[in-house]
């Protein structure tokens, strides 16, 4: 699973730091890539 996270985030430490550990990977991807105020 960790390798998929690195793949999805490009292994960039800044992007990995945006992950919320209280959310699932799918929820984090939705929040970071697809919300109206997405960060990526």
- What is the average of the pLDDT values? 84
- The total beta strand count reads 0
Question: What is the straight-line distance between the termini?
Answer: 21 Å
Question: Portion of residues in helices?
Answer: 55-70%
| Low-pLDDT segments, ≥5 res | none
Q: Note the total helix count.
A: 3
Helix and strand composition category: mainly alpha
Please outline the major beta sheet. Answer: none
Shape: globular
The string of secondary-structure elements, in order, is: HHH
What percent of residues are in strands? under 5%
Radius of gyration: 9 Å
Oligomer: single chain
Describe the structure using short key phrases.
3 helices; 57% helix; mainly alpha; 40 residues
Give a structural overview.
The protein is an all-alpha fold and 40 residues long. Helices cover 57% and strands 0% of the residues. The chain has helices at 2-9, 13-17, 25-34.
Q: Can you describe this structure in just a few lines?
A:
With 40 residues, the protein is mostly helical.
